[in-house]
Amino acid sequence: MPELPEVETVRRGLVPAMEGRVITKATVNRPDLRWPFPDRMAERLTGRRVLSLRRRSKYILADLDSDETLLIHLGMSGRMLISGQVLGAYHHDVGVICHPEPQKHDHVVFDMDGGVRVTFNDARRFGAMDLMPTTQSEDHWLLRDLGPEPLGNTFDEAYLIGRLKGRNTPIKIALLDQRIVSGLGNIYVCEVLFRAGINPKRKAGQISAARVATLVPLIREVLTEAIEAGGSSLRDYRQADGELGYFQHVFKVYDREGQPCMTPDCTGTIRRFVQSGRSTFACPQCQR
User: Hey, which residues does 211 pair with through a beta bridge?
Assistant: First the structure.
């Protein structure tokens, strides 16, 4: 499933295609994805201007001039693909590009003014879309229990120390808890704990406050590096322009089972084990 860097990369790629533009036609090709689409979704989107595109955790939120917000969740394999002429940070003036032929899993299509088309393609159909009043978006059932954004000002050392104090769960599982910090997923938690030199199996409440404090800048560092690299392309993930992300090429621990540890002077070998049904990768020698 795309994690925060992948979703943020997609959001940034969609900005020149959607932000400030009118949805001249919305086409919904099926009644549901993971859950049913909202009533009259195509009708409620058609003719509406996208005022802003923002992200909350792993969700993209499109605020509309109808005082409604469209929530987009990519799920396991969802992709937002752009065709047509787009001007912006990720695209240059190359003239109008013909739209590709419709594909089997093109479930929702947004035709934007200026000839731009944004297509939501989802082969596994684990993605989701919903509409809600913009003023009540933080109360949506998918968003209301989320913790602070790891790149935001409310996520700091004092907060994380307080939330982890006395917890008997392994630190890896605690950092994956979206109620503690939102948007972190399996890949980036593995990378953060490796950089911190912390064993993923250690109980969160038994880690000193000083070591917990070091996690905050490392979380921000890893996420920022991943966003700048366009995310990590594993399996189905693509950026909005169809390009792959590149952060997987600089993984220090994730998906490196059996390979030598990259810490200088460490002679350990990366091992894989399972925690709560998820693969964990760590160096048993330098992660204590």
Answer: none
Active-site residue 284, yes or no? no
Placement of tokens 């490392």 in the chain: 218
Question: Is 149 considered catalytic here?
Answer: no
Instruction: Enumerate the domain spans of the chain.
Output: 4-139, 157-282
Can 172 be counted among the known catalytic residues?
A: no
Q: What is the DSSP letter of 135?
A: G
In words, the CATH class of domain 157-282 is mainly alpha
48, 58, 79, 163: which is the annotated catalytic residue? 58
Paired strand residues for 61: 54, 71
* Residue with token string 């499933």: 1
Among 3, 6, 8, 68, the one annotated catalytic: 3
Q: Tell me the per-residue pLDDT of 137-171, one tens digit each, with 9 for 90 and over.
A: 999 999 999 999 999 999 999 999 999 999 999 99
Catalytic residue at 170? Answer: no
> pTM of this prediction?
0.87
Please pick, among 2, 16, 170, 200, the residue that the annotation labels catalytic. 2
